Amino acid sequence: MKQIIKNSKIILKDQVISNGQLLVRDGKIAAITREELDGRDCSVIDGKGLYVSPGFIDIHNHGNSGCDAMDATIHALEAIALFHMKHGVTGFLATTMTDSYNATVRAIENALAYSKLTDPRASRMLGIYLEGPYFSVKKKGAQTEKYITGIHLDELKNYVDRGKGLVKIVALAPELEDSKEAITFLVENGVTVSAGHSYATYAETLAGIENGISEATHMFNGMRSFDHREPGIVGACLLDDRVTCEMICDGIHLHPAAMQVIVRMKGYAKVALISDSIRANGIPDGEYDYIGTKVTVKNNEVRLPDGTLAGSTLSLDHAVRNLLKMTGVALPAAVRMASLNPARQIGLSETKGSIEIGKDADLVLFDEDIHIKRTIIKGVTVYEESAGKN
Length: 390
Prior knowledge:
Elements: E1 2-11, E2 16-25, E3 28-33, E4 43-46, E5 51-54, E6 56-61, E7 63-64, E8 67-68, H1 74-86, E9 89-95, H2 101-115, E10 124-131, H3 153-163, E11 167-172, H4 179-188, E12 192-195, H5 202-211, E13 215-216, H6 232-239, E14 244-248, H7 256-266, E15 271-274, E16 286-290, E17 293-298, E18 301-303, H8 316-327, H9 331-338, H10 340-345, E19 363-366, E20 372-377, E21 380-384
Parallel strand pairs: 1-4, 1-5, 6-9, 9-10, 10-11, 11-12, 12-13, 13-14, 14-15
Antiparallel strand pairs: 1-2, 2-3, 5-19, 7-8, 16-17, 17-18, 19-20, 20-21
Helix pairs in contact: 2-3, 3-4, 5-6, 8-9
């Protein structure tokens, strides 16, 4: 099957090709050009001057549409995937929360079962992100304190084994006892280790990075604060080039100046936009259950009764839009932070995350304001905005 996308602005890693054309063959990108392609035996999509971007990849999100990965049902993951599709997310990780051992196992096994199903209408679940339970109580954020625990290697190994290759990222606090052994095990099994919900010192974090930590969970949030005498986890993650920093660009979790600090310190290749969205994303303001705790959603803010932020109602298309408006980075850089960089963190940058010949044709068409008009996965349109919709 061959397809041409014409009359579009194609976003590459470091530039935009105006009035470009893409040839897609058998779900892969086959040509990128400014020349007129032969449309014989091809279906043609007129881009009408829209941008064509690599599909966004949300590596850290818990849910949306009233559903959460911890619900451990096929229905929940189906609903989450359908929502993502409408927001330009062609791939995502089902992200757990700190909960009981049995609840976490159920979520992993459900994700494994879901991974064996193929819904041609929806975003693809690319794996699992385990957020907890190996955290610092001092920086628990919205994580449930009674389930936060020290590192138990046998338990961790069981989680990874049950995932059968689906566990892509594990977040933990590097200051915990046995963290070196845990990090080593995870890296040897191809799992990215992220430092998060941590009260680690600079030295403790640096030791974790030396052991294999290569990501920072929602940078600045759930972390020991930076101090000029003890730079802590923030200082170590910002300074070390081996670490990619997750960033929530909702204007709530981070002041725009903090976003600029992250981007300037890390560069365009070491920032991954995430949503950290919860089940309240995509549904009206109100009170909702969040792993046994009531949260209030109002004006896009999700808070526990004590005022602590508890995830977001963000989606990655809005994150890209906010990043552009709040920091002034160039469009190719903003797109890279929502596509190629996340793909690299989960070992998929050879096939996904950028518009290059031979890669999967996971594509998004959007306008100047990053409003999603069409989402394409492996050459197949899975979402198209209805005519006349604002």
